[in-house]
Amino acid sequence: MDSSKTLSDNLDDFKKLSSEFNSLGEKIGAENEAFILLNSLPESYREVKVALKYGRESITTDAIISAVKTKELELQPVAVTTAATTIAAAATITATVTATVTGPLTIVATTVSVAATVPGTSTVVEADKFEKDNKTILGHLLNHMNNSLFYLFVVQKSAKIIWDMFESRYGGDDADRRKYVVGKWLEFQMSDDESVMNQVHEYENLVASVLSKGMKMCEILQANVLLEKFPYSWSDYHNHLKHKKKDLTLQELISHVRTEEANRLKDKLFFQSLNSVKANLVESSSASKDGFKNKGKQIAKDKAKKNKGLKPKNTCGRIEKSKLVCYVCGK
After folding, report:
1. Looking at the record's lineage, which domain of life comes first (predicted)?
2. Across residues 186-212, what is the average pLDDT?
């Protein structure tokens, strides 16, 4: 680009050269042409490059030229008037953050509302106030970004540009939000690793998110979907409820689930205590058997110790017979 010309004039020259190039039959494509022009912008127009590159709309040459001309007007020096000078023009920027934005940027229950006058159109005091308010909003936005987005936008000095970019990317399309919440609702599945009632409350939150997006759903459908999300250990109770002829609403099903979980917890504690008693009985029985064995061994040891040191009788090689008594005559 020619440094002696303004950036807008250079962009117009680029558009003319591109038209002449295409008229010769050498087509480079509108998208490639736009990216070449976008990468040719100077570093002072970095925020324009970022806004166009990461915006939801497709990049065109006309869009780049329009954005650059707008930015060029903002960069033109304007004399600061005194307090006594009549304000010829006053522009107000208001940025408000009042929602949870799905996607990489998540802002929860945060409300920031700041109005300030664009510097250059009023007094020095108002210009300082604008800078302070801009830094406040910029800090709130950066604080709620994840690491990848933070490092991308930390060099950005305008809070309004960041907010407009995220508004166009995540906040402008309600269809994307509806698809997101419906996907979370359909993917939900209970597991045996967590309390069933806690997971039921999570399901209720997903249903509330779907309804808040304007999608209607009867309570019987909500209950039947929850019934299919039961964990594997609840298969018997799941089949029992499916064989009922009466349809249950979501609140009725939740009431049944609460009662069933309480009964299962009570039975679990009972069987745990019963198993503990059986374990104690087995342990005491084995200890008794060991005691009898040890007692017999001790008696044998005592008898051997008592007979120790006694010499056998000398019978001169004859076997000494014990004296027998007749049981008839007694002799």
Report:
1. Eukaryota
2. 91
